[in-house]
Amino acid sequence: MEATRETNSHAIPDLIHDALFIAIIGGAVTALFFLVLDSFQGAPYHTAAVMGAALLEGTAIGEASLSLDVAALYSRFHIFAFALLGIVLSFAIHQVERRADHPGRAMAAMILVVVASIFALIASLMPGALSQVGILPVAMALALAALCVAAYLTHEHRPARWRSLKEAAHLA
Q: By three-state DSSP, how is residue 44 classified?
């Protein structure tokens, strides 16, 4: 697949490949971040239960039934949401690569817009969830996921840039 990336191929398999990896990386990083954070606080799955209660049951956070069932339902939504995000972001990135004068800058700006949009969606679809979970942990999880997705995209779409970053970090 490296050879197709060098020539900027934008075939359907490339879009599917990127969508899958964006979804897996972004979703897994945020889920693992909150699983570790919640576990350290003595309440594994707390964040998923709070978000699930706010989204799926429409209950106020104070009266939410924080159960493992709600966390499991929210996890399904989380997987679906990141799969959809992966598809949209993959298509957009391939379009940027084909049309932008500075695709790296355009991709970085696009990722920032996506992170801001996720914040807005959480605030509108899950009222009170940000205050319950905390703005800082959500920002940290999204920033970490964005960095991981950006690293993947750099590796796949900008192999020369990836090599120079590895050399600068003395990892090559």
A: coil
Is residue 92 exposed (0-12), middle (13-18) or buried (19+ Cβ within 10 Å)? middle
Sketch the domain layout of the chain as residue ranges.
Answer: 2-168
Nearest to 74 by CA among 89, 90, 59, 86: 59
Rounded-to-integer distance, Cα 31 and Cα 8, Å: 32
Two structure tokens written together for 102: 């500075």
Place of tokens 């949009």: 117
Per residue in 140-167, pLDDT tens?
999 999 999 988 988 888 888 888 888 8
- 52-92 pLDDT, tens digit each: 888 877 765 555 556 788 888 888 899 999 999 989 888 88
pTM of the predicted model as reported, rounded to 2 decimal places: 0.82
